[in-house]
């Protein structure tokens, strides 16, 4: 079986940070490459990786917080100027499609200038997106529920956020993106995972570790650590180790590449 690769372009949380960059992960399953989230500075990170501009098959945006979409427009400007040729589908919460289209027009990144066809598709809970032998299934999370409750009257929108299950042949990867509580991960950990890429900013680390304890997960990569947990990494590691027991885990660093 081919080795699969994950490039961690950005592993920080939503707070400004000087070194960790913001959420962006490139999954490479053989010939199929999936970019999950476009936190800044994804355009520069992609350029630095030296990959061909036709490499990415699909982009998924988990939700519309700026630490997950802030680099999208520069990435598209790069795809235009570097003459990407291959059609591209961007999968995102439905509420984002119209404003992102408008912002591309306002940025003069017109369809007519692109050497590829750019399409947007709304993410639908539980409906897989298939590219050759790779299946990506979005599941809703409660990440934006409290904002929905507080602001939906003034800002009528769906407040959608998603986590993802990525499957290729017999390999299964869970990607939390941003969650609201550990229970959001339930659909990802129902069956054994080869890798879980999991945030730690939006629930108490202990609660998350207890939820994951004893699950059939070969390896966990923690990312999107809240500033306090990142600055006290050894303390966070000790805490995780005590609760998770035998599940191997590491903390993602920007630019890190992981073979799984
Ligand atoms: Zn985030
Ligand atoms: Zn978020």
Can you offer a commentary on this structure?
With 260 residues, this protein is an alpha/beta fold. The chain has one domain (4-259): 4-Layer Sandwich (Metallo-beta-lactamase, Chain A), CATH 3.60.15.10. The protein contains nine helices and 14 strands. The chain has helices at residues 42-49, 66-69, 72-81, 97-106, 145-151, 186-189, 205-212, 227-231, 233-244; strands at residues 4-10, 24-29, 32-36, 58-60, 88-92, 118-122, 129-131, 134-140, 162-168, 171-175, 195-199, 220-223, 249-251, 257-259. It has a seven-stranded mixed beta sheet, with helices on one face. A seven-stranded mixed beta sheet has the order 7-8-9-10-11-12-13. α7 runs parallel beside α9. The protein is globular, with a radius of gyration of 18 Å. The structure holds zinc ion (2 copies). The site of one zinc ion (ZN) has 8 residues, from α2.
CATH topology: Metallo-beta-lactamase, Chain A
Instruction: Please write the string of helix (H) and strand (E) elements.
Output: EEEHEHHEHEEEHEEHEHEHHEE
Q: Would you identify the regions where 5 or more consecutive residues have pLDDT less than 50?
A: none
The Rg value, from CA coordinates, equals 18 Å
Strand order of the largest sheet: 6-5-4-3-2-1-14
When the domains are counted, the total is 1
Shape: globular
**CATH architecture label name:** 4-Layer Sandwich
Summarize the structure.
By secondary structure, the chain is α/β, with parallel strands linked by helices. It has 9 helices and 14 strands. One zinc ion binds at residues 14, 63, 65, 143, 178.
């Amino acid at each position: 079986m081919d080795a699969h690769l994950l490039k961690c372009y950005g592993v920080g949380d939503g707070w400004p940070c000087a070194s960790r960059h913001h959420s962006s992960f490139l999954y490479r399953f053989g010939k199929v490459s999936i970019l999950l989230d476009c936190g800044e500075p994804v355009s520069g990170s992609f350029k630095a990786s030296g990959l061909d501009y036709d490499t990415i098959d699909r982009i998924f945006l988990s939700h519309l917080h700026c630490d997950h979409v802030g680099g999208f427009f520069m990435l598209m400007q790069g795809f235009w100027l570097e003459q990407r040729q291959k059609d591209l589908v961007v999968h995102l919460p439905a509420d984002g499609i119209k404003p992102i289209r408008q912002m591309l027009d306002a940025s003069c990144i017109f369809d007519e200038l692109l050497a590829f066809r750019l399409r947007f598709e709304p993410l639908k809970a539980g409906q897989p997106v298939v590219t050759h032998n790779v299946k990506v299934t979005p599941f809703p999370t409660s990440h934006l529920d409290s904002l929905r409750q507080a602001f939906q009257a003034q800002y009528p929108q769906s407040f959608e956020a998603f986590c993802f299950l990525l499957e290729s042949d017999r390999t299964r990867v869970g990607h939390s993106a941003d969650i609201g509580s550990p229970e959001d991960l339930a659909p990802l950990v129902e069956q054994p995972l080869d890798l879980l890429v999991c945030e730690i900013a939006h629930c108490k680390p202990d609660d998350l570790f207890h939820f994951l304890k004893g699950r059939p997960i070969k390896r966990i990569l923690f990312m999107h650590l809240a500033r306090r947990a990142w600055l006290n990494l050894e303390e966070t590691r000790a805490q995780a180790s005590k609760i998770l027991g035998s599940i191997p885990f590491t903390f993602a660093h920007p630019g890190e590449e992981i073979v799984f």
